[in-house]
Design a protein that fits this description.
Elements (H helix, E strand, L loop, with lengths): L2 H42 L8 E6 L4 H15 L4 E5 L5 H6 L2 E7 L8 H13 L8 E8 L8 H12 L3 E2 L4 E4 L3 H12 L17 E10 L9 E7 L11 E5 L8 E4 L9 E6 L10 H9 L5 E7 L14 E6 L3 H14 L4 E7 L2 H4 L3 H10 L4 E6 L9 H7 L1 H10 L3 E6 L1 H16 L1 H9 L3 E5 L1
Parallel strand pairs: 1-2, 1-3, 3-4, 4-5, 4-6, 13-14, 13-16, 14-15, 16-17
Antiparallel strand pairs: 7-8, 7-12, 8-11, 9-10, 9-12
Helix pairs in contact: 11-13, 13-14
Length: 457
């Protein structure tokens, strides 16, 4: 066999082995999704004549949804009829029929409702003094004590329910970043509702596993902003995720408070990739997690990591729709996973609006994006580099400039909108621009249909 033939044979063998690995992971994930779907169907099945316990979640990153699903599973296994649903799909008629309702509520930003609860919360405010004297309820409020309004939305929800005459089954439980003591208190509260025996143990989140850092490089050299590093990590075994999912990491300096990062790669890449900017606190000191990942964690060393499904930012029913992706800075990470998947599958048109400081130093993944644009995998690319001209130009300004095309993309073509990046500034500005372009009711309808999704922080 000639050397060239040998190289081709080895390349074919490597490709076949990689394809077999991807197939094995896909089959495993298919079984997992089927099991999850069967479980969801079982949880939604209500016995004839029995009012269900409603378990409603307000979740932005998927953590509250995961805890709500586990809550529903435990109650269902104990013999209770249960209905699990996102808070936006809960209405007053359902509350009126429920014998009790359990709320697992994250807080978004500084005390706001998560996207999958914002519509419900607006309806609550409009309803005024709703009559819920018949209702018994419990609230597990999720938050982070680093924010001024710790568990703000969960607390506001609890106050609204009390004002409406509802009776708490137990005092509201505030959970700081997955605190184990708060979780035990929630489990104890569940025992007041249903007798949970040995067969209904709380399974909890997936365990953290040691992933290896195999590569790290700065991708915005000479930027006037903080360094952004591209990290590549290798799993200890076969694992899988979907575009839009999150990686949750533990850092040695603060292991009780895991940090979540948007995944910037797809499973077929063989590595999990992140884009991390070194954060700065108000006093100028660097963020513990970002500095450790960007400067201190050695290549070849391991990091405790687990994957978290982020159903609110997955493609789901939007897989074949035209999608307008909007982001700034490291928010490109959460969009890049979707763009990479769509570039391979060619499942639908993609339009990206991306913003940063200067094109010369901050055009993240420029070569990749331009290659997709040239090949037709990306139909349109608009950029907003705020420091490249005297007046500041941001992504929301590009949306205003293309208002007619945005309306056409969404209304006539049935497209969806995905936003990833900073909450303060970018996401707020984008939301305001979209309301100007589509109207408040139009944007609210998109959110209800799952066609307006955000992963912002």
């Amino acid at each position: 066999m000639t050397p060239r033939a040998s190289r081709l044979a080895l390349a074919a063998l490597a490709l076949a082995l990689y394809a077999a690995l991807c197939l094995a992971i896909w089959l495993r994930e298919r079984r997992r999704h089927r099991t999850a779907a069967d479980e969801a169907d079982a949880l939604s099945a209500v016995r004839s004549g029995e009012a269900p316990i409603i378990v409603a979640h307000a979740s932005q990153t998927g953590h509250a949804e995961s805890l709500a699903r586990e809550t529903a599973r435990v109650l269902h296994a104990a013999g209770s009829a249960v209905r699990l649903l996102p808070l936006n799909t809960l209405d007053h008629a359902q509350l009126a029929r429920a014998r009790c309702t359990l709320f697992v509520a994250s807080t978004y930003g500084e005390g706001d409702a998560p996207d999958n609860a914002a519509d419900f919360w607006q309806r609550c405010q409009r309803a005024g003094g709703a009559a819920l004297a018949h209702l018994h309820y419990g609230v597990l409020a999720l938050g982070d004590r680093e924010y001024a309004r710790f568990c703000g939305f969960g607390q506001a929800l609890d106050h609204w329910l009390r004002a409406a005459g509802a009776t708490p089954l137990f005092e509201r439980i505030d959970m700081d970043n997955g605190d184990a003591a708060a979780l035990r208190a929630w489990q104890q509260g569940l025992s007041l509702i249903a007798q949970t025996g040995p067969g209904t143990a709380w399974t909890g989140d997936a365990p953290f596993m040691p992933w290896t850092l195999v590569d790290r490089r700065v991708i915005n050299p000479d930027s006037v902003g903080a360094p952004i590093v591209h990290l590549s990590l290798q799993a200890p075994g076969m694992t899988a995720w979907e575009p839009g999912d999150l990686a949750e990491l533990r850092i040695p300096a603060d292991p009780r408070h895991p940090r979540s990062y948007s995944i910037a790669s797809v499973m077929q890449d063989g590595r999990l990739e992140l884009l991390v900017r070194v954060a700065r606190r108000p006093d100028g000191s660097p963020g513990l997690a970002s500095r450790w990942l960007a400067e201190e964690l050695a290549v070849g060393a391991s990091v405790a990591l687990r994957l978290r499904a982020h159903s609110a930012f997955r493609l789901g029913d939007n897989a074949t729709r035209p999608i307008l992706f909007i982001g700034n800075g490291t928010g490109l990470a959460g969009l890049r996973g979707h763009l990479r998947a769509r570039a391979v599958a060619r499942t639908g048109p993609s339009w990206l609006v991306f913003g940063e400081r200067q094109a010369a130093h901050d055009f993240l993944c420029e070569g990749e994006l331009r290659a997709w644009l040239a090949s037709g995998a990306l139909q349109r690319l608009d950029t907003a580099f705020s420091r490249d001209q005297p007046e500041r130009i941001y992504v929301q300004h590009r949306l205003d400039e293309a208002a007619g095309e945005v309306r056409d993309w969404v209304r006539r073509r049935g497209g969806a909108i995905y936003v990833c990046g900073s909450l303060n500034g970018m996401a707020q500005g984008v939301d305001a621009a979209l309301r100007r372009i589509l109207g408040n009711d139009g944007l609210a309808a998109l959110a209800r249909e799952g066609r307006y999704r955000r992963d912002v922080y």
